[in-house]
Amino acid sequence: MADEAQAPPAEGAPAEGAPAEGAPAEGEAPPAEPIKHTYTLFYFNVKALAEPLRYLFAYGGIEYEDVRVTRDEWPALKPTMPMGQMPVLEVDGKRVHQSISMARFLAKTVGLCGSTPWEDLQIDIVVDTINDFRLKIAVVSYEPEDDIKEKKLVTLNTEVIPFYLEKLEQTVKDNDGHLVLNKLTWADVYFAGILDYMNYMVKRDILEQYPALRGVVESINALEPIKAWIEKRPQTEV
After folding, report:
1. How many CB atoms are located within 10 Å of the residue 57 CB?
2. 170 in the same domain as 104
3. Domain membership flag for residue 71
């Protein structure tokens, strides 16, 4: 019968005369191969500000060159850096600076950003808060005058550190074991990556009384690609 319906092609098979799935139609060019970028990370032989970046590289399985500059090499290399500072990330031969901006870029690359501008804002707020916290610790840690440093340490340990960690601890409790959005984001990875540096600056484990935050760090460090990185990375004090 002229109006009789034809059976559909078997699932996964193309209709007669149609190109196979994923194949270009007649006259169309084949799809381009994914662009493979080259990455080089420049920093000293320490974790510190570069470790969140290394965590993100590890999480995404991205190959990169981890250049660890010695103190002797740094004076000659310094003028070649955008602002005479490190860490610096080189992508396809172009160098950029600002560690959090670089982390955000890598987070987008490995799929750890939000799905909307509003979600990205929530993540940025948490990461910027963590960085504010780190800077408040650093100001005291790198104070050259012992008398001044001793006074600042009192305020740091009795007021500043508890204030930030209590807020962040509650944030994790409110977000199903994460720092934001009730799911894994680069805020979790950033915090886990920067923690050793903050502990180093205050000479103690700042999460001793904050189990929810410790849980975030432990879960990140247990992720297979990050766990593998931790096991093979150079052993450094900071």
Report:
1. 22
2. no
3. yes
